[in-house]
Amino acid sequence: MEAIKVGIAGTGFSAMAHLEALRRIPGVKVCGIAASSLEKGEKVAKEMNIPKAYASWEELVQDPEIQAIHNCTPNVLHYKINRAVLEAGKHLLSEKPLAVDSGQSAELIRLAAESEAVSGVCFNYRHYPMVSQMKEMLQTGEPGRVHHVIGGYMQDWLLFDTDYSWRLDTDMNGPSRAVADIGSHWCDTVQHVLNKRITQVMADLQTVHPVRYRPKGSVETFAGSGGQKDTEPFAVSTEDYGSVLIHLEDGVRGVFTVSQVAAGRKNRLSLEISAEFSSMAWDQENPNTLWVGKRETASEDWSTDPALLLPKSAAMTHYPGGHQEGWPDGLKNLFIDFYAKVEDRSRKSSFATLEDGHRIVKLVEAILRSHREQRWVRVEE
Ligand SMILES: NC(=O)c1ccc[n+]([C@@H]2O[C@H](COP(=O)([O-])OP(=O)(O)OC[C@H]3O[C@@H](n4cnc5c(N)ncnc54)[C@H](O)[C@@H]3O)[C@@H](O)[C@H]2O)c1
């Protein structure tokens, strides 16, 4: 069978992670890349051995050879590029957020419904074996009815007021930062594992650094200001921190905290589910361990051993027990799931759809509104 020809929009952190993971799955070939300029695209294409570089993302979308596009550009471009890909009838895997507001994301789900192609949003934490194991364990019914879920997503890459990224610029990023950027991952993961939607939110957000110092010149994600002295002050309106009380379907309660200014925490997405007979806790920085908490017997630490995990979770594990798998492998699992759907539309897949992405955009809007109005807000309001 001929490989599906894939193009990538963007050349930064997420684009390079997509490229690497795509090269580790069968049946696809990365044939082209578009950056913010032809010169930059050509440089990356040469370094990474990608056959074509384009002068713009529009050229990438129009290339008849390209069948699927991964959109790894800054948030403000997501709607425009996603829309063009859907209108061209090509497969779309969009980085989160699907769009910067729910008017845009609603339009995208309408276009996706009219297209024959497969489309999805890159909520990659669903695709870790131990996250899947939590979901499968809950499905067995053994843990019983879920009482509550707690957790958060903590990072420190924007700790100092001299740390800079386009994410701090509302025009490039959209109206929410810590919540939309990392809280969205937590919410998607929890909704997926519990198979329940978040219905209401009560939020408290904070901008720890209302003024930051930006280097004169462009900076890629996670690069910091690199000690650059030539900086200028600018006002920041998006949140560095947020805590959100949540109600989910079937009376489940929860709470999560997000921060991009938590020293020492690099990428700590954690969640703990407490149910009638047991609890389960998982932390992305220690991804191959799942704690199962018990009251009347000893609690257990499970490790990622495909011989012991439930079937779907075992299938997401590519090496025997004791061989560590992590963030790049979750992304690889997502792409395996996505391209299996491209090959067989009748397949039941687990990646986030555009509908899921749209609901997350609405959820983020509800969180912003709750903070602004200091009250509980229903996600459908
Ligand atoms: N799923 C995840 O875990 C995850 C992780 C990181 C980033 N992301 C998402 O990926 C997206 C990109 O983030 P990043 O961290 O890679 O940022 P980045 O700054 O590292 O890279 C952004 C890239 O977009 C390119 N770009 C800018 N304008 C462009 C244009 N007009 N045409 C083509 N390319 C253009 C830039 O050249 C740059 O290479 C964001 O939406 C972010 O939310 C998701």
Task: Characterise the protein shown here.
With 381 residues, the protein is an alpha/beta fold. Helices cover 33% and strands 25% of the residues. The protein has helices at residues 13-22, 38-48, 57-62, 78-87, 102-114, 129-140, 170-173, 178-194, 311-315, 327-343, 354-373; strands at residues 4-9, 28-34, 52-54, 68-71, 91-94, 119-121, 146-154, 198-206, 211-215, 231-235, 241-248, 253-259, 268-275, 279-283, 289-293, 300-303, 377-378. The protein has a nine-stranded mixed beta sheet with strand order 16-15-14-13-7-12-11-8-17. α5 (102-114) packs antiparallel against α11. It is globular. The model has no long low-confidence stretch (mean pLDDT 96). The structure holds nicotinamide-adenine-dinucleotide. Nicotinamide-adenine-dinucleotide (NAD) binds next to α1.
Task: Trace the largest sheet across and list its strands.
Answer: 16-15-14-13-7-12-11-8-17
Tell the overall outline. globular
Give start-end ranges of low-pLDDT stretches: none
Bound molecules: nicotinamide-adenine-dinucleotide
| Count of DSSP-assigned helices | 11
Nutshell version of this structure?
The protein has about 375 residues and is α/β, with parallel strands linked by helices. It has helices spanning about 15-20, 40-50, 55-60, 80-85, 100-115, 130-140, 170-175, 180-195, 310-315, 325-345, 355-375; strands at about 5-10, 30-35, 50-55, 70, 90-95, 120, 145-155, 200-205, 210-215, 230-235, 240-250, 255-260, 270-275, 280-285, 290-295, 300-305, 375-380.
